[in-house]
Amino acid sequence: MRMISDVLMYLDRVYAREYHLPLIYDLGLNVFRDSLIKYNNNEIGLKVIEIIIQYINKSRHGEIIDKFIIKAVIYMFESLTETITPETNVNSTTVYGENYYMRYFEPKLLASSHSYFQDKVLDLLSYHSGTIYIQSVLQLIKDEEARIQLYLPDHTSPRLIDLMDTDLITTNLESIMKLENDGLKSWISDDNYTIMSSLFKLISRVDSNHEMLKRQLRNIITQNGEEMNEKTKLELESKSTEEEMVPVPTNEETSKKSNIPKKKQTRENVTQYAIKWIQNFLQMKAKYDLIIKNSFENDAGLVREIESSFAIFLNSNNRIAEYISLYIDDGIKKSFKTLSQEDVEKILDQSIIVFRFLKDKDVFEKYSKNHMARRLLQQKSMSNDIEMNMITKLKQEIGSSFTSKFEGMFKDIKISQELSSEFKNTISLVDKSIKEVNGGRKLDLDASIITTTFWPMPLNKSLDIVQYPKELQILKDKFDGFYKSKHNGRNLTWSPNFGTVDIRMHYNKKSYEVNMSTYAAIIILSCFGDDCEKQEYTFDEIFEITQIPKPDLVRHLQSISVASRSRLLKKTPMSKEINPNDVFTINEQFKSPQTKIKVLTVSSGSKLEDDSQRSETMEQINKSRIIETEAAIVRTMKARRELKHQELVNEVIKQLISRFKPQPSFIKHRIEELIEKEYLKRNDDDLNVYTYLA
């Protein structure tokens, strides 16, 4: 046709153009189309289409074909266009319609491709393997895109790719991810970053927001959380298979029996569960961090979804704030004995990771203050720098208002150390009576002066009735006088339940330095000292002498008469329980390979609260929340003077969200209380509007 067109070039330029007739080349193509390709109801054209599609399918199945034939035929089909010559105006330009490729070939190609993709999906699904499916689909897409690039027109490419992505990815990929033995959950478990990276690429083709991947990750994280709970329990159960031998009462019948084995099912196990739970949570979080980095290209949407799922899972545990505080407490205490400063720093950083997910940060504050107070008073930290480091991390995370009381506690301890040092210098220079009370031996006192503003310990006047032995009483009186001389008008309330005492004791001509609680020291010095009237006392007699509250007296007697490593006293009859008529004497048979002994008080460490303790703690927190919420309401209304109900609720939530998220119903109730107290009133014209009353 090109040759004929060249010969008749003058006809095209002069006559055809003047009379708006088709060019010779176009007219020839139309004759070819109508007389050959579309002849006899498009018989030959459809046969050619069938052959070309067969060639393409052979290529899809790996057979070698002549790609140039396909390309040439497709070019021919694109050249064959429908022509429409206007009847109304002979001078009008000829209008060209849809070409043969678009009208006949492309629909057949897409229909055939759809059937091919469907058959391929059925074949791949029969393997019940997500890995095989992902790898095969990736290769199939790569090959198909190469074919498209090689011989298909540009306008067909997006249609065929959309069809391929719909059939291979959109329709089936979510069910592939759900496969139990070779799906997303197993890939996460096995850290199969390669296949998850391929999965991410496939999903990115059809959904830039990765919604189907988000749904599956959300479900899997929930399942992983449930499995983590079970794993933590099993790990602790395997450790608690050790059995503790408990002495039985010394009557004739039971003495014939061996010691009774009893599993260690105490609050210590529950505390270890809390610590182990945090450790397992951090491992789980680290696993997903690596998946995000190595497989999901640090996609911001997936990062938010995973963190949101972790937050939901973590906050579904209503004791998580206590768990985090116990984890920090355990790490800082271990630093005192076994951990390096680098290890402790790692624990603190990990704690902040978990803390970020925590919703009720005010609950954490409550527990953390209690645990920190015990550490500071009992000197359980490696150094104050570690404690300050943790406070700094919290301040950077949530602000100085959250850490102000922690810093106040530290300030009290620092001032106390300076006061104690000054007190020691004072009594060593001017007062010899203290040594005389203790037979010429030196007595020292380190007092921690704490203020109720910062510390979680309530002022307990009932402890004033505790009777101190003369060795401790004289130090107490001297320090009282010293403190009042420096701070006129201030009074001290002593809390012996938080202190410790170092006593040198002699057993079988061997000397031991024993560190024990102040209560234990009061018992030893008041009832079993060198100048005591007798060396044998019942529980009731010890109570009458010391006036230590009975629950505390029981715990401390258990610590020094039942615990095998610190059995300074002998209890008759020997049992774990302390009864009113039990008799206590000095244990003359006591011996220890160490000369320095620390008496561990029963249940005195940082342990997970039981139900009654937790109920009391939550009651205190709820009272605090009422005060904070009402303060936020008044603060907001004072600044804005008038607000609609929903605007006020939103503003209060915004102010309190860094500590806890109050429910709208809770805020509404506090608003009603403030209306009753005449801080606010409802607008006369609109009851949904509040007005601040100055």
UniProtKB/TrEMBL annotation:
GO molecular function: ubiquitin protein ligase binding
Location of the Cullin family profile domain: 319-561
Pfam families on file: Cullin (PF00888), Cullin_AB (PF26557), Cullin_Nedd8 (PF10557)
One of the record's GO cellular component terms: cullin-RING ubiquitin ligase complex
Keyword Transferase part of the UniProt annotation: no
Keywords, alphabetical: Isopeptide bond, Ubl conjugation
PROSITE patterns: CULLIN_1, CULLIN_2
Ranges where the record places region Disordered: 235-264
InterPro entries in UniProt: Cullin, Cullin-like_AB, Cullin_CS, Cullin_homology, Cullin_homology_sf, Cullin_N, Cullin_neddylation_domain, Cullin_repeat-like_dom_sf
GO biological process terms on file: ubiquitin-dependent protein catabolic process
Similarity-based family: Belongs to the cullin family.
Identification of the protein by name: Cullin family profile domain-containing protein
Lineage: Eukaryota, Fungi, Dikarya, Ascomycota, Saccharomycotina
